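Long-time lurker. I teach an intro course on protein structure, and each term I like to show students one example going from raw sequence to a predicted 3D structure in token notation. This year I'd like something fresh instead of my usual example. Would anyone be willing to generate the tokens for the chain below so I can use it in lecture? Attribution to the forum is fine with me.
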Amino acid sequence: MSKKIKLYKPEKYPVIIGEGKNVGFCTVWSDPEKVLAQAPELRQKAALIGSLYSQEGVNIILRNLCLNPEIGYLLIWARGELSQTPYGTAGVKIINSLWKEGVSKNRVIGETGFRVHPEIDLNILRQMVANVALIDVSQMSLKQAVGKIEELPPGRVYMRPVAFPEHQPEIGVTFPSEEVGFLVRGKKTVDAWLGVVDRILRYGFTKPTEYGNLQKELPVVTWVIEEEKVNAPYIPDWPKEILEAVGLKKEALSKYFEEFLSPAVPEGTVYTYGQRLRAYPEKNGPLDQVKEIIAHIKKCKTTRRAVAVTLYPPVDKESKSPPCINLIQALVVNDRLCLFVTVRSHDIFKAGIPNAFGLLALQEYIAKEVGYPPGKLSITSNSAHIYEEDWDKAQSLLRCQIWERKPSLVFDPTTQQDPRGNILIRIEGKKIALELVDFSGNPILAITGKTAREIAKKLAQLNLLSRPDHWLDIGSELAKAETALKRGIPYKQDA
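-- Reply from a regular --
Happy to contribute to a lecture. Here you go:
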């Protein structure tokens, strides 16, 4: 029997091949090896023994059943402690729903919202479901569940084995994430912006807008632009249609700067950011909030009152398009003028770049007036979104710029330096020693331990690094150091 069994990607989704003929036995979060240790006879009675650990595992079960049409019974045994958790029951609910309610033409199973792999032929799937009996034996003891197999009549081969193409995850699928609160950094505006677009398409939630179309929205994304010159913006060599779509053309940016800094409102326009910042409507007359910010900082460089708002409730409460940028705060950080901005609703693909450059122009203006060089610009987009009509362009751009680009294996200190410092690793006696140093080489903190894991866990507990590539590099170095320590050979950290 084992020679006939075929499995979908068994190296990734391991399944135990038994000596039975027509039964698949599925545990739920219970280790099949431990189940077999308790009931060795199961190996003789079942053709396949596996476990359902996640919802995605449902697709793997369906593929394996279609590969092995001699299997006419699928027994589900969800008796373990983890089987009763929400994670454990989720997959079982999907399988039960498929057998009871079927699958829609949109590949959704019943009311579960679960989607079948697009590579799986639905006609074949429905034929399999019609010929395979689903039996829930979760209320039985393991011994009783194994005994149930003996009561089942012989099965029959109802179709030829069918292998579906390997699954390719859809770009539009929402990855699991922390859901709220993301941080992206970039030297230039485009660098940070690309990171935000990537996070939205990867982790954003698809939902309707108030205008009737769809959006991908990611709540609370903070993107930090570290250095950009407004009079010499970095414009990459992208196709003309992309540059126009995202507003990254020098002449268009220049016009936007004027509107952002001027109190004048063009004819036919309800408001501009310049008007709300430089001529905010007050009962005693227009208020120049930018002027007030400058005055506050000149009076006290540590002030936290250098703030401007754009919302004007008497007008905006009835408006269908109130200002998106709502609050701007200037702070002097390490003798540099930084700007911190809150955006309530942010069309990242079309408006993100022009907004950022407008804010950079405002930052440079304030910095010049108060006598400090401009520092970093931090934008917190509370609703960072991309509308459905822009998804294709955004995906095409990300494929080229991020997803399909090979990572550089050469360290570039100008773009890859961890701002939290450097890590030095060495062996001291019978321990591994890790030291965090500043960029002048001054020691800040030391950690010692007998194993790489011990030090890595402490490093993570203190959250001492900021870059994923730095974490990975230090992890590999700690492993090398532990190997050297165990073997009694010299260790030298890679530069």
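Some talking points for your students: The mean pLDDT is 92. The chain has three domains: 16-151, 182-403, 417-487.
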